[in-house]
Amino acid sequence: MPLDIARIRSSYPALADGYAYLDGAAGTQVPSSVVAAISGAYLAGLGNVGGSFPASRRSGEMVRACRTAVADLVGGEPSGVILGPNMTTLTYRLAEALSRTWADGDEVVVSRLDHDANIRPWVQAAARAGAVVRWAEVDPASGELDAGQYDRLLSARTRLVAVTAASNLIGTRPDVAGICRKVHDAGALSYVDGVHATPHLPIDVIALGADFYATSSYKWSGPHLGAVIASPALLEALHPDKLRPSPESVPEKFERGTLPFADLAGVVAAVEHLARLDPAAEGTRRQRVIASMTAVEAYEAELFRPMLDGLDAMDHVTSHGRPSCRAPTACFTVAGRRPVEVAAHLGERRVNVWNGDNYAWEFAGALGIRDGGGGVRAGVVHYNDRSDVDRFLAAVAELATGRL
Ligand SMILES: Cc1ncc(COP(=O)(O)O)c(C=O)c1O
What we know:
This protein has 14 helices and 15 strands. Helix 7 links the parallel strand 7 and strand 8 (189-193). The strands form four sheets. Strands 2-10-9-8-7-3-4 form a seven-stranded mixed sheet, with helices on both faces. A four-stranded antiparallel sheet has the order 11-12-15-14, covered by helices on one side. It is an alpha/beta fold and 404 residues long. Pyridoxal-5'-phosphate binds at residues 26, 86-88, 115, 117-118, 164, 168, 193, 195-196, 216, 226.
């Protein structure tokens, strides 16, 4: 069923400021239900987990509910959901634990398409373990990551392949399921960065073949929190550094210190919000999430098309990459203007966008834009509407030579 965008927008208090929030790739706004869940958790009284009084039991329940909600959003089992401050921190933690199982001469494959958070932790861990790093390359013209190259990159020595489900710079969605099949044929593990993909489409970590799938709730209308989903059996076999008295159990042994319990309640509310986007969706929360995210994907594609066509129609604009399958995120440069100036101009016109390499450091280098200040990134999420896109295009059009 089509999304009721007016209803959805009215559930986001921040949108009332009149800005076009096209900066969702760097973090989304949150609906009032998320704010209410977080404040409700504090108002009800919170204790640390493991105590024998109600406030402590409530926190324990929030942890369980949060793992279940994340598993409903992306698939997998609640007991395989590791919670933590953000994707970068969790990826460093997993890289540290996984690299203990690597030997001199083992191999790790990273991709030039990825955010640096799914590159550097592996490159640094490989250096410590004496492992060799192999690079999957992007085609700078299309912005695609060819899955065929993994036939050459994988070997009997490959231990791990890190790849993104969607580029945070231009939205490219590589054939992750195809890559993961090759990874498993080679006897290696896959670590899929789902931070940019999760807000834009239905995700099934099992169908993708992701041994590890990382996501960040602040990209899908939740609070600042990250999660990595893996099979509990796989996590059992790993031994992260941990404190002596902290739990040995999975996934707790990967979670350092105290979790932000109230924020976990906010994550649950965010998943509920996503599950309710398609009001006609029925069944379990997982089924409603899939129906709603399918509707989100269709709506965003419809909204993104005029945005991209509008950029393409402007002679003073270069839109980078032309991937055949993409999340609704564009990166462009404007003739004679530095990306930072373009973003500042759009800010004056009440349009929020980002400029720079957006931490897709390798990819921005491959596109040839890193040294010139990167690009301007704009994208849509489910709470954007046509007026956001039109205001954005009108503001970019003003930058044609001689007009401003
Ligand atoms: C694709 C992608 N991966 C990883 C990250 C890092 O996520 P976090 O801020 O949760 O560490 C980001 C953040 O923008 C991202 O867009």
